[in-house]
Specification:
Helix content: 25-40%
Distance between the termini: 30 Å
Order of helices and strands: EEHEHEEHEEHHEEHEHEE
Structural class: alpha+beta
Radius of gyration: 19 Å
Strand content: 15-25%
Length: about 250
């Protein structure tokens, strides 16, 4: 049983329509949503992190969660598990945020938008101060969470659907990454590697969903101690300045 989002108090919530959550945030997409986003001319950013099972990057308290949403790939003489996020690239306003700060595709908006402000990861607590919503959003509307439980059954179902898609899509996402040469990851907890793929190539790979091309992956790690730990597990590491991706360190 996955833990519920842990909060200290019950929360109310009602969207004020300020549009802040739709600006400057890369929105995680399911595989189907990624196909739609690419088809409609949007840019996708690919964020990758990985860990060694019961080794570097593995958070023991999240073991079940991270195992379910990751995929095993070879790395030199070892093996890592890769987690891939396809997200709508929104460095500014979302391309579907209308001039009135309302969503122009509200009925077809991504799952992550539908569950906002609830977190996908059951181990991340929902905290109003971590959101962009104004204070009045948390002072009105129906109960969102009572104790540690989501109140709305439909919202509960959407959260579970989002988590399930995260798990069911991972093998295909890793295959797409490999087909496009996006095979350098960051170590979970140490950062992400971020790619902005050519969208024509990305859409083609999504349509074909290549299989059985699990070549060797590498981990971008700049800390010498972490490098040594990973090499002891037989994992390929690199600290060379990236050319085709950005390393976003924590």
């Amino acid at each position: 049983m996955e833990p519920a989002n842990q909060v200290s108090d019950s929360l109310r919530f009602a969207c004020t329509g300020c549009g802040k959550c739709c600006s400057g945030h890369h929105v995680p997409l399911t595989l189907v949503e990624s196909q739609r986003w690419a088809r409609d001319g949007g840019q996708v950013i690919v964020l990758i992190e990985a860990f060694v099972v019961d080794g570097p990057g593995m958070p023991p308290e999240q073991r079940e969660h991270v195992l379910l949403r990751s995929h095993a790939v070879p790395s030199a003489d070892g093996q890592i598990r890769v987690s891939v996020t396809f997200a709508a690239f929104n460095p500014g306003r979302c391309r579907y945020l209308a001039d009135n700060d309302l969503c122009a595709i509200y009925d077809q908006r991504p799952l992550v938008c539908r569950i906002y402000p609830v977190e996908i990861n059951p181990h991340i607590p929902l905290r109003p101060e971590s959101k962009d919503c104004p204070p009045e959003a948390w002072q009105q509307g129906p109960d969102l969470i009572h104790g540690t439980q989501l109140v709305d059954a439909q919202l509960q179902a959407l959260v579970q659907a989002s988590r399930q898609a995260d798990r069911e899509d991972i093998a295909a996402k890793v295959a797409v990454c490999h087909a496009l040469g996006m095979t350098t990851s960051a170590l979970k907890g140490n950062g992400f590697t971020a790619y902005l793929p050519d969208m024509h190539a990305f859409a083609t790979a999504l349509a074909e969903l290549p299989q059985d091309i699990w070549g060797s992956w590498a981990l971008h790690v700049e800390d010498a101690a972490l490098q040594a730990q990973l090499q002891a597990h037989g994992v390929q590491v690199t600290d060379q300045p990236p050319v085709y991706y950005a390393f976003i360190g924590f």
